[in-house]
Amino acid sequence: ELGGPLCGRPAAAAFERAGLAGPIRRACPWANECLREALPELEPLFDQHYDRVVRESLCLLYVAMTRAKLGLFMMMDRPSKKHVESGEISRADHLLRMTLAPDVEPELGAMLHRTGDPAAVLAHGRDEAAGREPAPAPAGADDDDARPQLRAAASDGDGPTFRSRGGAARPASQTLDDGDHAAALDRLRLLNDGAIDRGTAVHALFEAIEWLDNGNAETSTLDDASLLERLKAIAPRRPDDWRRETVSLFRQSLASPEVAAALTKPAVPAGHTLHVAHELPYARSEDGRIQRGYIDRLVVERDERGAAVLAEIVDFKTDAVGPDDEAALAQAAKHHRPQLEAYRTVVGALHRLAGDAIAMRLVFVRPGRVVTLER
Fold first, then answer.
1. Residues 95-108: pLDDT tens digits?
2. Helix or strand run (H / E) with residue 294
3. Model pTM?
4. What secondary structure does DSSP assign to 140-156, as a single string?
5. Percent of the chain, pLDDT > 90?
6. 31, 33, 35, 39: CA torsion to nearest 10
């Protein structure tokens, strides 16, 4: 989450209120920059929205950094040359780098900032897990030992070793043996996020589709140049070959009759209309906790009065499943079902629909298969 924008993603709506917690005075659906330029009276409303979201992001960052019991390890992606030269601060990792290590060259694998001894932190954790009394802090130690590390990516320098963005894990540090290294990886659950990047990129390409024209993916909005440009904005540090491979995967998936059918506009009764939303954000209270998420694709059918009568949730998955492996598909669908059921609850509350009026479909991109979950 350090790489996420401090101002958050576009919301469903923006509102203006008196003070930090006063009554809401104005609200409007989300408007892009072009609309706001045409309606300058909305600018104060959106300025307040961004101020509020950035303040909340910084509060979350503060809480995350001050609740660690033994140690805090922060890994950030190597910033682009543009961000380094401009000094722009739009993400949490930019803020941390400029605050903790403004004069350190952010090379891949560089330790940008460190206070404390990671080996002592892991040793303390092993003692606790084994039921032993943790060893006392070394002489001269103070509260600084609990302060954070900020690492640009994996390296073989001092401190624990982790996987870098898009790179393989590097050798363990001289201060940690192999067991410590494995423990650190397991404890922090930092996996190679190449698959995450691929999934994010594929989702971005499917966002370009409202409906296929009679199942035909070869439309002007889906030409390769447009898709590659979209991926360049999503994954700027990925090479061109990686982006072309992602477009190829997207094309192969659309060539599947099942996937094409799921994205082809169906016939609806006279007077009914279909509305498509992509990456629809939501937040709800669940068992006393706030649950947040994004629905990949939501199609809502409305009648002549504008009331929702049916809905379809479509979720894109990049699981490595074979096209003919029915058992693996069934297992993957079972694994993802709770997520889709949470979406269904949200959609039902949002549009006042019963559960049996909301279809749930999983689109497995790699095998080009679509699994409809029974309601």
1. 887 888 777 776 76
2. strand 289-302
3. 0.51
4. T--GGGGS-EEESS--S
5. 31
6. 100
